[in-house]
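User: Let's play a game. I give you a shape written as tokens, and you guess the letters that built it. Ready? Here's round one.
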């Protein structure tokens, strides 16, 4: 379990930095574009599409980067099950990670977003005013969602197994 966590952390912090960089770059471009194109509805759709693509690209790039790389000062590597890793198998492994990540992320965000007003009311706060913090719930949900998806990917058994942690001298 500890080794899986180490590999997940190697993946996650790189993914988070790349996703933040892509989001900031896209935000700067979008702000520049907003001065020329005042239609807020289309800008919102562009932002939604761009952030979805940036999320997928960031996870794909980092996923492909960490496959078959040595864990820092260790002989452990995260590799595909096949002897010769081909791009098709790497993409298939990433796809299995990513669709689980999306499901877990949305599920956790909806669950926590629904519980937020109840928790605020339980603490004696106004439940409606607590909704202004719900925008952070989606970002927070990415952390456990990524861990669950990564953990499940490595826990697959038999012929369904796509990745393994192996030693390479």
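Assistant: Ready! My guess for every position:
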């Amino acid at each position: 379990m500890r080794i899986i966590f180490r590999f997940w952390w190697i993946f996650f912090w790189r993914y988070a930095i790349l996703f933040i960089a892509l989001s900031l770059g896209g935000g700067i471009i979008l702000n520049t574009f907003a001065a020329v194109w005042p239609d807020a509805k289309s800008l919102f759709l562009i932002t939604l599409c761009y952030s979805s693509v940036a999320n997928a690209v960031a996870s794909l790039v980092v996923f492909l980067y960490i496959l078959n790389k040595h864990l820092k000062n260790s002989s452990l590597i995260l590799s595909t099950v096949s002897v010769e890793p081909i791009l098709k198998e790497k993409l298939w492994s990433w796809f299995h990670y990513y669709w689980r990540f999306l499901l877990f992320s949305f599920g956790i965000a909806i669950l926590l977003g629904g519980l937020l007003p109840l928790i605020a009311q339980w603490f004696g706060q106004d439940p409606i005013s607590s909704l202004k913090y719900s925008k952070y719930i989606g970002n927070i949900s990415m952390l456990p969602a990524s861990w669950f998806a990564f953990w499940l990917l490595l826990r697959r058994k038999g012929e369904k197994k796509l990745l393994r942690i192996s030693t390479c001298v």
